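ok trying this again, last paste got cut off
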Amino acid sequence: MLFYRKFIVRKHERGLLFKDGDFVRFLEPGIYRFHEWRKSHEVECFDLTEPAFAHPLADYLVDAEREDVERLFTVVATGESEVAVVYWNDRVAEVVRPAERKLYWKGPVEVRVDRFDLDEGLAIDAKLAKRLLAEPGLAMASENVGALRLPGRNGIYSREIAHGHVGLLYVDGELAVSLDPGLHAFWTYGPSVSIEVVDLRVKTLEVQGQEILTRDKVSLRVNLTATYRFEDAEKAVGATKDPLDHLYKEIQFGLRAAVGTRTLDALLEDKSAIDRAVADRVGPKFAEIGIVVESVGVKDIILPGDMKELLGRVVEAEKAAQANVIRRREETNATRSLLNTAKVMESNAVALRLKELETLEKVTEKVGNLSVYGGLDGVLNELRSLSDLQR
């Protein structure tokens, strides 16, 4: 009895024929029958709507079946410093790494390739970068996970720089260029790439709880606030490892110098002297490295408990002395006024008479009933008599 096996390759497929495990040839669409007693023939079918040809024999086929491969496939081979972006019907499908070869079936899906020479630059056009980053199937690199390099996929390092910031691009650890706000993406192959984002807006630096001795050996705790901004980020990061830490320490040194060379009384009388001294120290120094110190201001000067009590007593004594001076001055003024009044009444009978009437008015304000005998002169005479008896 005659046995045969039938294989069908449909119109949207291509096939690979194997006999006893060895590749025989490619199969076009059609029906294939093989007479055999045992299963010696096998056919692998591939759907042309999925162009990527990922097969262990891909390299062998390119070498041994060159004519058929060129007829059936689009071959994408990259050099050691080259990256290729593969499009299927103008949709980003895959990124081919350097020194890699990929095969794509020719068929209903149009395959297009864009190549990029890494020796000419690692930067990716912003429009292309957005398309690459929007494809979930591609291996990406972000600021959180770092650069990914997966077999058959490409990692893309990307960073978006916000308004009011500047990006510092480092290539192999060396500062290369400043980047403006916007999306920036780079191929991860070749030199290592990283971006440091620097905020150019005005920021506040708090220098808190600085314990400092004044020139007269009084311990103070000083809190200070400074505002600053980066004017030239490249110069700033190139001049010092940590600009913010450097600024903090320089303000500390300036604050200690300003307080340590002044007495407590001088500091309390002119607190702004500390601001001026610290600003004069750090302002010009940091302007040279691209950092502008906008302002420096002392928020608090905190005295120790015993010094607070002592100063309280001093202030209390000063206020008491001032009150005593004011009281003596007023008493002197009052006595001088009485003396002037007496001199006027001594030489002017009318003035004396008016003073007597004023005194009588004050006395009668507290009297319920008043009986007058002998007229107004009699009352005045009686009042004089009472005054003389009291003396």
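PB: full thing came through this time. The longest strand covers residues 219-230.
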